[in-house]
Design brief:
With 381 residues, this protein is of the alpha+beta class. Among the domains are: 74 residues, no CATH class; 38 residues, no CATH class; 118 residues, Band 7 domain (Tetrahydropterin Synthase, Chain A, 2-Layer Sandwich), CATH 3.30.479. 47% of the residues lie in helices and 14% in strands. Strands 6, 7, 8 and 9 form a 4-stranded antiparallel β-sheet that branches. Strands 3-2-5 form a 3-stranded antiparallel β-sheet, covered by helices on one side. Strands 1-4 form a two-stranded antiparallel sheet. The N terminus is likely disordered.
């Protein structure tokens, strides 16, 4: 048997030729390590790595105890097979990084997912692991950088038709990432993710652009177009069960064909002038209208005050007349005479007059116009 030559001093490092009793020149063992490969050399001093030699010797002894009949025996084959199986099973350990999700497959069939950390699956060829990166943000460009000269000889993917039957070049980018909750759908349901997302994005953009006029596409509806295309792409990918989450749709360039580009720029400049004039008019209106409203309010308040004053004066005159009438009913003659005198006082109080007593004579006595003379003398020269 292979182990029969491993008696005292035997094994692969047994006695060297000529060192036994039959060797007339040999002197036998030279102490510990004397029979090992690093035993006493020509100098016979016994120096060498004795610890390593002893370790090998102990390993051989233990293996000999486990397999006393040699490695080819039934027990030895079983032990070797068990060690091989354990080593093969140990290859099933794998590490999932923080930005990944582990997808376990057994005989090509999906069996479940694992989270970041140390995990285990059946080793190859029984099992395998797919580890997609679920936190990486990917970008898919459609027409970007292809039609910069706008000559119409570039990629047809950015050439689109608007709702009013005009042609426009639309370059845009789609940012997306793998949905961590649906990583298995991403790994098994779509063969070419970049190509599929590009095709879906192009179709969605064509549908949205086809519902709008070219002026809106070039000017005011860019944000609305991006939001609408994002929702449409996400709906289509969800129907495909692609396991993809759309993060952003961003328009890069939206230009008409080169042959009419200058005309569109003139139209856009005219629209800017229109917006400027409209803003100026609105500014003027915002200044004039409050002033007019304030003036109208002032006139209304003055009219209301005049009305209140006239009504109050009329009420006072009516009340005075009523009071006079009441007094007149009590003493008509006295009241009539008083009214007559008060009226004469109001009418003739501020005029020059001559009073003649009819009981002084038969006629009018001439007189000098002393009041006029006095007035003339007092006037400034």
């Amino acid at each position: 048997m292979p182990w029969s030559n491993q008696g005292d001093g035997g094994g692969p490092w047994g006695k060297k030729p000529g060192s036994g009793p039959s060797d007339p020149k040999g002197s036998g063992p030279k102490g510990p390590g004397g029979n090992g490969p690093w035993g006493g050399g020509p100098s016979g001093n016994g120096q060498g790595p004795q610890g390593l030699d002893q370790l090998f010797q102990q390993g051989q002894d233990q293996l000999k105890n486990l397999m006393p009949d040699g490695p080819m025996s039934g027990r030895g084959a079983s032990l070797i097979g068990a060690l091989a199986v354990v080593g093969w099973m140990a290859t099933g350990l794998y590490i999932v990084h923080p930005d990944e999700i582990g997808l376990n497959l057994v005989f090509g069939r999906y069996e479940g997912s694992t989270q970041p950390g140390l995990n285990y699956n059946w080793p190859a060829p029984v099992g395998s692991v797919i580890k997609p990166r679920v936190t990486a943000v990917n970008t898919t460009d459609v027409g970007v950088g292809v039609n910069d000269n706008r000559t119409g000889r570039g990629d047809a993917s950015s050439l689109m038709l608007t709702g009013d039957e005009n042609i426009v070049y639309v370059d845009f980018a789609v940012q997306w990432q793998i949905n961590p909750a649906k990583a298995a759908d991403y790994a098994f349901n779509i063969r070419n993710p970049q190509g599929s997302i590009r095709a879906v994005a192009e179709a969605a953009m064509r549908e949205v652009i086809g519902r709008r006029n070219i002026q809106l596409v070039l000017t005011t509806d860019r944000s609305a177009i991006e939001a609408e295309v994002k929702l449409l792409i996400q709906d289509v990918l969800n129907n495909y069960k692609a396991g993809v989450e759309v993060r952003l749709v961003q328009l890069q360039k939206v230009d008409p064909p080169g042959q009419v580009l200058e005309a569109f720029r003139d139209v856009q400049a005219a629209r800017q002038d229109q917006d400027r004039l409209r803003n100026e008019a609105e500014t003027y209106a915002s200044r004039v209208v409050p002033e007019a409203r304030g003036e109208a309010a002032r006139i209304v308040q003055e009219a209301e005050a005049y009305r209140e004053r006239v009504v109050a004066e009329a009420n006072g005159q009516a009340s005075r007349f009523t009071q006079v009438y009441d007094e007149y009913k009590k003493a008509p003659d006295v009241t009539r005479q008083r009214i007559y005198l008060e009226t004469l006082e109001k009418v003739m109080g501020n005029i020059d007059k001559v009073i003649i007593d009819r009981d002084t004579g038969q006629g009018v006595v001439p007189y000098m116009a002393l009041p006029e003379l006095k007035r003339n003398q007092g006037a400034p020269k």
